[in-house]
Amino acid sequence: MARGLSPKTEGFAGAVLAEIDWSQPWFAPWRELGEPTAQLALQQRSVAEALNAIHHAAKREVGAGSGDIASAASVNTLRAGLALGDANEVKFVPQSALPEGQAYEDFIFKTAQIPTRDGLHDFFNGLCWQRFPLAKRRLNQLQAAEIEDQGVRATRGPVRDALTLFDENVVLMHAPDEVWDALQARDWLKLFVDLREQWQHVHLVLFGHALVEKLVTPYKSITGHVYRVDSQVNPHDEAALDAWLVQDLQPEKLATKPYEPLPVLGIPGWCAANAERAYYEDVNVFRPKREMVKPKSLAT
After folding, report:
1. Rounded CA gap, 80 and 43, in Å?
2. 221 phi and psi, to 5 degrees?
3. What pLDDT shows up at residue 157?
4. How far apart are the C-alpha atoms of 106 and 127, rounded to whole Å?
5. Which terminal CB of the chain, N or C, has fewer other CB atoms within 10 Å?
6. For residues 169 and 150, what is the distance between their CA atoms, to the nearest angstrom?
7. In whole angstroms, what is the distance from residue 216 CA to residue 201 CA?
8. First-to-final CA distance of the chain
């Protein structure tokens, strides 16, 4: 039996939630909301029910101003969302609620219900809906529009590809230009060694729920896709960040796949081993940027 599990939760697919080490630095922004949600899911044997309960608790705190288990960040974001209307209101439902043959994103768009399996992946997806409801709704609207326009095909178009990558694997980065330039150049030694002091001015948000899921059992090569946050946005104000994302997430921009790869365990302070320069000399993980080779012109 996994640590901390009672006989009641043994055999429950979401029992893996008990294995999350909330003391890890990458889970710090998720802990206040995520830890009680995980505990509730283990008690109720339902991730969907736990997410709904936390959501309702946050709404009560917004209305009454009383203390509850929802994080201040979540409450602030929810308040901002409610000010824009109830279009961002969603309910978490069992996976079985998704009709056979209907696209997941289309179902969410049309019903405001999120099919949720009992496991880490959908658990972190639900937490992201709690923290960034407006951005998640915007991603869903764009997905639904693409499905309406192109249907569900064997291969996604560039916008749907970019939307999926954002939703699953994005890291939001607010950083000085020098740091961003080094990341774009994939000059890893400059980024993480020469500019190490600059990282105190970098603010990151792990938005992608598949990325956060991977970090439950971390390994060196886990790589996120960085999306730069405008310098005018206060990255510590999650409601403002949520609202900015709604405006910035435009199909034309997403089609260009405006992402930069980042091996996240290279982030200073996230791994004891990365205090040494040699950590970043592993080219199997910290790969140099490939030069684009121009095709030779045909002889006339």
Report:
1. 31
2. -85, 5
3. 83
4. 20
5. C
6. 24
7. 26
8. 73
Q: What is the pLDDT of residues 173-215, one digit of tens each?
A: 999 999 999 999 999 999 999 999 999 999 999 999 999 999 9
> For the chain, what is the largest distance between any 2 Cα atoms, rounded to a whole number of angstroms?
78
Beta pairing class for 223-228 and 260-263: antiparallel
How do strand 91-94 and strand 113-116 relate by DSSP bridges?
parallel
Average pLDDT on 149-159 reads 73
Q: What letter would DSSP give residue 295? A: P
Q: Are 54 and 70 a contacting pair, CB within 8 Å?
A: yes
Q: Output the pLDDT for position 8.
A: 56
Residue 293 has pLDDT above 70, yes or no: no
pLDDT at 5: 53
Per-residue pLDDT, 84: 38
> The pTM is what?
0.86
Asked whether the beta carbons of 269 and 232 are under 8 A apart, the reply is no
Contact residues for 160 (Cβ-Cβ < 8 A; gap 6+) = 143, 146, 147, 150
Instruction: Quote the pLDDT of residue 148.
Output: 87
Q: Residue 21: exposed, middle, or buried by beta-carbon count in 10 A (0-12, 13-18, 19+)?
A: exposed
* Helix/strand/coil percent split, the chain, to 5: 55, 10, 35
- Beta partners for 115? 93
Distance CA 147, CA 151 (A): 4
Tokens of 201: 């001015």
Alpha helices in the chain (DSSP H): 28-44, 47-64, 72-83, 104-111, 120-131, 133-150, 158-169, 177-185, 188-189, 209-214, 238-248, 251-254
Give the other-Cβ count within 10 Å of 171's Cβ. 22
Q: The tokens of 78 are what?
A: 């929810």
Beta bridge partners of 94: 116
Confidence of residue 104 (pLDDT cuts 50, 70, 90): very high
